């Protein structure tokens, strides 16, 4: 059992690292990797799950996704504009390579379509008062759901 938890946590840390890289690298998503990391931590560590769900930079976005599989309007705008800017900048670099350019534009359009077709979350449900409380003991099943009721 300890080896499984270690592997789940290792996977979660790997995706947290990719998420951080994604936040500072144009064209690479950050939040999607953190959602995957959250999934790993649900199986490996309530403490790391709690840390992600209450992180000051991206915890709110993860709580919204975890609870409703929805994206706030603010996050949709930021993500859509970021993708459009990254695709536009990349387009100049790939002018002479139509296959690569088509792939970049196609993936950008697919990403924007996915974001815009997700449910828009009610922003009033996700203030600071909705922070997830850390469960007591290592036997806690999940930190999600505690303290999220509207």
What does this molecule look like?
- The chain is an all-alpha fold and 150 residues long.
- The protein has 2 domains: 97 residues, no CATH class; 48 residues.
- The chain contains 6 helices and 2 strands, in the order ααααβααβ.
- A two-stranded parallel ribbon has the order 1-2.
- The pLDDT mean sits at 82
Number of DSSP strand runs: 2
Residue fraction in strands: under 5%
As a whole number of angstroms, the C-alpha radius of gyration is: 17 Å
| Biggest sheet features | 2 strands, parallel
In DSSP terms (H or I, runs of 4 or more residues), the helix count works out at: 6
Strand order of the largest sheet: 1-2
Distance separating the two termini: 36 Å
- Tally of separate domains: 2
Model regions low in confidence, pLDDT < 50 over at least 5 residues: 138-150
Question: Can you give the helix content as a percent range?
Answer: 55-70%
H and E order: HHHHEHHE
Shape, please? Answer: globular
Supply the helix-strand structural class.
mainly alpha
